[in-house]
Fold each of these.
Amino acid sequence: MVILDMVMPCMNGKELFLEMRRINTDVHIVISSGYKEHDVVSHFAYRGLAGFMQKSYTLEALRECLRTAME
């Protein structure tokens, strides 16, 4: 399970997502972002995104997202 932000130094979330999926197609990846869900998720259509968490989120929201992503 990996939680990625969309904005990171050196490599953005989409680039890292694609690289991780290239290395391991079974990895579960959740994107966390302050951007709107639709704007982010559309970049990952049909690529196996496990979930999305809108910042800022609660511990309960994180727990639920991760539980769902692992199903």
Note: Residues 4 and 13 are 6 Å apart (CA to CA).
Amino acid sequence: MADRQLWTLGIWIAHPGRAEELRDAWQTFATWTAANVAGCGQAYLLQDAQDRDRFISFGPWASESAAAAWRDRREFKDFVARVREICVEFQPNTLWQVGEAKGSA
């Protein structure tokens, strides 16, 4: 369906004491992605307020093929290999937006 927004979402759990390393690695890679990969939108990284080792990243993509091409790049594979050393767990997801509600905040 052409009018749905595609998002990528990652769930990250850093090894204890490595949260800052994960933040830095993610920021470097997200900045590189924004400058070098067609079809990506803004990217966000959130840190869990109760579990400082848990993160969620997400961002919109112009198309499913753009997100797939990004994940096929050597730079993405190198990043994931590095992050797998920093993290206990990493769950990549590709999602279609199927609902929305806007507040006033």
Note: The mean pLDDT is 95.
Amino acid sequence: MKGIRVGLVAAAFAGLFLATLLVAYFGLEEVGSAFLAVGGSGILAIALIHALPLALCGFAWAALLPGPLPAGAMLCTWARWVRESVGSLLGILPVAGEIVGVRILALHGVRGITAGASIVVDVTAESLAQVVYTVIGLTLLLLRDPGGEIWRWAAIAAGACLPPLSVLLVARNRKALRLLERIPERLAASLKLPWREDGDTLPDTVHRIFEARRGFVLGILLHLFAWIAATVEVWLALRLMGHPVALWEALAYESLVQAIKGAIFIVPWSAGVQEGSYVLIAAAFGVPPDAALALSLVKRARDLVLGVPALLAWQFLEGGRLRRRRRARSET
């Protein structure tokens, strides 16, 4: 585990170095000007727009859990908000946000084993929705330009879709799940979450959730709507920078970027990967590289605007729970 952490830290620093090189190469002043063109009000508007995909992802997660949907959706939306915030701001381990999300559900009455299994299925549903999202983006590009250039992007996207599809194969295979069970089991133990309850194991619970096909299909659809809704953020940011694109172009652009990010998900915070992806694909949509880098910075600013309040609220609630536990011990 220590070797993995060292490797991830090295990958993060390499990504940050790459991002810095890209900004220096294309011009700090140009990138800064494009970023400032969006402004604080634009970043706030983009953060507010992101609340819709966030809520849709929360509902998708709730669809996998037993119980009434509205109450579960509120809890899962809160857990998803914290989960994304940890992943984008704190998570050096790729699964750090997911483990925190499981903890939030477990502390609010969801069985630990069910919470852990639900997030495996939720990640699978989101991965499959991302594949569909990428196919939609490629189709739109093909309709615009049926020439040879599209096939290069198709090859890149096809390779990028392999990791999301592999998630489905792992999640549906009991032996593969048992091999991978040791990693989340150790992480869960560090968070004092049960990984076996009443004889149930993670693979068995995962497959029970998969068998409720209605919830799984609903989860895929809601995640797909979330991916599509997030397109508006790219569309608005580029418009504010003075490089407007059509909504369908923003969808195609973002779908290819997210496909590459998903393929190289192992790099913490997608450091350098996100910036490089936006620059690599920008030319296909007439977006200059400085604006593409600024777009990536806008996305990271959005993560700060949404993530910092979520993390502060989460820590406040965790601190209150700890104080109540100590008070109860002192009274006994």
Note: The mean pLDDT is 79.
